[in-house]
Amino acid sequence: MVTLREYATVDGLSAGYWSTDPADPRASTAWLTANRWPEDGVRFLADTGAGAACAVRTQDDHIGFPRMNCTDIAAGTGRDVTQPEADLKEARAEGLRQLNVCALGYGPSVFPASLPNGAGRDGAEGSRSAGLAFDADALVASLGEHAGSQGRLLTFLHLEETNPVLPVLRERGWHVGVTDRYFLIEDIGADEAGYLARFPADRRRQLRRELASLDSAGATAEIHRGDTVTETIQQEVAWLEACADEKHGIPGDPARLLRVNERLRTAFGPRYAVALVRDRDGRAVASATLVLGTRDVLLRMVGLGPGSEEIGAYFHVAYHLPMRLARSTGCSRVLLGTGTGTPKLRRGAVAQRLLSAVPPAATAHGALLRRTDAALTACP
Known about the structure:
The chain has 380 residues and is α+β, with helices and mostly antiparallel strands. Helix content is 34%, strand content 24%. Strands 1, 2, 3, 4, 5, 6, 7, 8, 9, 10, 11, 12 and 13 form a 13-stranded mixed beta sheet that branches. A hairpin with a 4-residue loop joins strand 2 and strand 3 (52-60). Helix 3 crosses helix 13 (363-377). The chain is globular, with a radius of gyration of 21 Å. Residues 115-131 have low confidence and may be disordered.
């Protein structure tokens, strides 16, 4: 019997599914509540029998976000993977209706409930009515039945290699492969000198020049947290983020971006931060919105306006200021996200593999996934 219950937001779910202070801010209710917009399509399914909740997104007719569409992800769309057009066509037909287990921001999508004695994910205390340990096999079975009742293809997207569902999927014969790389800086150093010490001499010289670019241009850097992030700063950030969207071919919408950032500020409180670079005239030219866990600082979005390129502002808001924030708050890592790896790797990041999985019967997706896995596994 399927024991799933659907929720539009995390508000109605038991507190036992969440850690109060997770190491990774993407595992927090603040993130899952605030990092949303009306058309994202994300819902939450709780399975009391399996002892877990999960974030899911339905997809119809391949309309919507490509990084939450199992066909695009299996095909390596946007990741320089070449696929035969005939195979893509077959997969599009196979995946016309999807139920994808995934989360916004490449964060956790499966949340095992804490046990009543407090032993559970992240050591969080909590309880749930069933009182049973997490059963990954039962979760996969109930999700499969739920998807089947709707005529949908069930998939799991963007899983870290330690995800507890992966062994069950492999045992059941699912197609599993690497579909992306998530970059993070694990060694930020005790201070800037400690960070630079890990690099060869020529790279240290390049990074020192990069770090000195603001002083050379008469520019300044700022970090604001919680209540010190004023309304004016929020508006500056929204405008810069809209400029960055326009550069990537996305219609800039400062009002929408401001609403998202306001939700993040309200949800995270002192764990919401903004990094800004101002030019010699005091004009904001680059920004980063950041949220903090107990271990990780997450770089959510970079904003870049006119004048940012000339002074090298991007490298400050995307790398050096998040590391400075991490050191000052006792965090040890900076989460950078996916995308182009070269600039991240050159600044000390490492790549974590993200895996996706499709059922054994989804043979067209399986073929795409094998090619994508081979292409991304070969990346340095």
